[in-house]
Every structure is written in C-alpha cells, then in structure tokens.
C-alpha cells in the first residue's frame, strides 16, 4: 500500500453525501475482458461507510479492435477519459511480435495523451508465498526506447536497424520526484504501525551510465541533483544507485533490501515483470499509470492468450490495481480495505487460480475476496 502517495486527484473521500466517481473501463484484449469485471465488482461492493458510489463507462482500445477497425485507440476513448472520468482501469493489450503497419500500442499512446508519466508497481509478498519482498518500482513511462523512433537502412549491403533512446531532464525530474515522494509516504505508513521489511526509507536509482554515459548519465545525474537540492525534504531517504545488470542480480538474491526503485522506461519494464516472480505470479502484481491529474489502474500480466476464455485468469492483479487507482485518486481507506481482503485470500490455500497452484475459477476468487469485506 502506498497510502495515497502523490495523490493525483486531491479530493479525499466523502464523509457526508455519497460521492459518485465515474470510472472508465477499458478491457482491451485477451483476459483483460475477463478480469476488468472483477475490478468493477470490487468497487460496487465497497462498504457504505466509505460514502462512495460509482458510474462506469465502457471504452474501447486494443489490438483486436485495430484488426477490426484500423484504430487501436479511438479518439472517443481519449475524450471520455479526459472529459468526464475520474479514473480508469485498463485490462491488457496484445502486442504483435512483428511489425504491423499502422499499429502502435494503445496503452503507450494513452499514457502520452493523458500525461501519465509514471508507472508505479508495488511488489509485496504475503506470508508463506514467494520471497520476502516489499518494494515499489517506479518506471518512467513516456520516453527512453519506448518513444518508438526507429529506422532501418542498408549499409555495405546489409540491413541496419536503429532506435533512438531519449532521456530528458524534465521527464526524469518528474519521475524522480514521484519516487522520492512515494518513499516518504511509505515511511509515514510504517511510523503509523504498517508492517514492512524496512526500517528507513530508501531510493535506488537504476541505470547503465557506465556504458550509456550520456543518456543514462543524464537520468542518474538529474535525480541525484534533485535529491541534493531538496535535502530538507528528502534527507531522511537513503539514496542509492545500482547499475541495471547488478540490480537484476541483487533483486533476485536479496529482494528484501529494496524499498523504492526508480528506473528509465525499458529497465523499469523488465525489472517490474521480473520482480513478479518473487511473489508467485504476474497475476498478483498491480500497477498504476499516474500523472498529475489522472490515474489508470493496469494489471501487469498482459493478455495471456493461452488461457483466454477458460475462466481461470487470476483477478488479483486487477483488484489490486483498482485499489492502487483509488489511492492515487486520494481514497486511501477503501483501498486499504481491498488490499486487506486480497491479502486474506492469498494467506489461505483454498481458493486460488492455477497460476498459484490452485484449481479455482476467476469468479470464485472474486467471490472469496468480496466475502472478506
């Protein structure tokens, strides 16, 4: 739990008349269509004490939509999110491994259009499952190699492919501040009695500036300068750096030492998916795409075509992403209720989907979590 760290919508939750929040639902492809309903069910089942009601807007995006219409991210979807939604849930998108003319990832485009410059991925173990781990990976969401500026040409009779890696001071400052703020907020939760592996907050800046001295060098230097210039605010956070290859090694050897990790887009993508192996499955790892004015919850597992339509998709990543979305909207207490119900489910061996060694269906897991409200 982040305890609404860096809440992007400063509302708090209603204490009198029920507050109605409009949530965009974008199932996307594959099992996204099976797990996004779980997020809706959880929101609808929140206890009345939180004085929250929800309206839902069904929106379209994805590779399957592109194959049908030639558009992966309709302008109507963007306009609905920008115009009337308070937050959103995004399910999954199928990504072809070979180039498809005219197609680009709708979630990448959506992050740019909505100004969602951070991808925040908490990875926390539950007693008895996987390795002891309690970290948040904060991934810069808008640049690096993911700007998709590529070209192919011939040289000496051979094809050569090039891709631009872009790191800017502005984007790096934004992501560095986000990560440092999360480190501070996590420490506040610990001081209030929240369980954690960590006694002091820390930030680990991940880079490869020993090789990429210009691009990764700028990333590293910008966050270091941000930290040094704001010691009055961030001085309680232990500042660390880790070259990305040794970061991978240490993350699997001693994951318990990492608190908040910040990384450029590509490294953050790899680290966050790899970290899921420490806690049993990608099916339990949430994320949120966050900017200054909006948050989209997004499970980390992808479209999983091998299990699509079988009713065995793990809904926990989506349910946790729903809670994470609420946190960044400023509603920490109902988010905590959801986290506690999920942890209670995971702490038992009875109702689990096959990715966690169980035999339960998606809906059976959802129903078990809802019972714990």
UniProtKB/TrEMBL annotation:
GO CC list: mitochondrion
Cofactors required: Mg(2+)
Protein's pathway: Amino-acid biosynthesis; L-lysine biosynthesis via AAA pathway; L-alpha-aminoadipate from 2-oxoglutarate: step 4/5
Alphabetized UniProt keyword annotations: Amino-acid biosynthesis, Lysine biosynthesis, Magnesium, Metal-binding, NAD, Oxidoreductase, Phosphoprotein
Protein name: homoisocitrate dehydrogenase
Family recorded in the similarity comment: Belongs to the isocitrate and isopropylmalate dehydrogenases family.
EC numbers for this chain: 1.1.1.87
Domain (Isopropylmalate dehydrogenase-like) ranges: 22-369
MF annotations from Gene Ontology: homoisocitrate dehydrogenase activity; isocitrate dehydrogenase (NAD+) activity; magnesium ion binding; NAD binding
Catalytic activity: (2R,3S)-homoisocitrate + NAD(+) = 2-oxoadipate + CO2 + NADH
Domain of life: Eukaryota
Alphabetical GO biological process terms: isocitrate metabolic process; lysine biosynthetic process via aminoadipic acid; tricarboxylic acid cycle
Organism per entry: Kuraishia capsulata CBS 1993
């Amino acid at each position: 739990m982040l305890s609404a760290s860096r809440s992007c919508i400063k509302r708090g939750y209603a204490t009198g008349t029920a507050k109605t929040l409009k949530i965009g639902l974008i199932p996307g492809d594959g099992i996204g269509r099976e797990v996004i309903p779980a997020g809706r069910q959880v929101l609808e089942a929140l206890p009345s004490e939180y004085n929250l009601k929800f309206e839902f807007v069904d929106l379209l995006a994805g590779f399957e939509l592109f194959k049908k219409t030639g558009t992966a991210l309709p302008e109507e979807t963007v306009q609905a999110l920008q115009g009337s939604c308070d937050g959103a849930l995004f399910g999954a998108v199928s990504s072809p491994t070979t180039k498809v003319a005219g197609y680009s990832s709708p979630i990448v485009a959506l992050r740019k259009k909505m100004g969602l410059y951070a991808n925040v991925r908490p990875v926390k173990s539950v007693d008895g499952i996987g390795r002891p781990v309690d970290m948040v990976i904060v991934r810069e969401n808008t640049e690096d190699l993911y700007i998709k500026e590529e070209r192919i040409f011939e040289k000496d009779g051979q094809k050569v492919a090039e891709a631009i890696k872009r790191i800017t001071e502005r984007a790096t400052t934004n992501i560095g501040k986000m990560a440092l703020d999360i480190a501070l907020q996590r420490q506040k939760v610990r001081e209030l009695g929240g369980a954690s592996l960590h006694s002091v907050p820390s930030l680990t800046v991940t880079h490869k500036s020993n090789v990429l001295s210009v691009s990764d060098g700028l990333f590293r230097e910008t966050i270091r300068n941000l930290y040094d210039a704001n010691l009055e605010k961030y001085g309680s956070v232990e500042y660390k750096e880790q070259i990305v290859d040794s970061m991978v090694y240490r993350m699997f050897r001693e994951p318990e030492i990492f608190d908040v990790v910040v990384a450029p887009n590509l490294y953050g993508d790899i680290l966050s998916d790899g970290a899921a192996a420490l806690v049993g499955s990608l099916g339990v790892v949430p994320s949120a795409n966050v900017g200054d004015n909006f948050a989209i919850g997004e499970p980390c597992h992808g479209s999983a075509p091998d299990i699509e339509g079988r009713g065995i998709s793990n809904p926990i990543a989506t349910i946790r992403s729903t809670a994470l979305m609420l946190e960044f909207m400023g509603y920490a207490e109902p988010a905590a209720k959801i986290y506690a119900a999920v942890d209670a489910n995971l702490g038992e061996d009875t109702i689990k989907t096959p990715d966690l060694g169980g035999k339960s269906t998606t809906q059976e897991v959802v129903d078990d979590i809802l019972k714990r409200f």
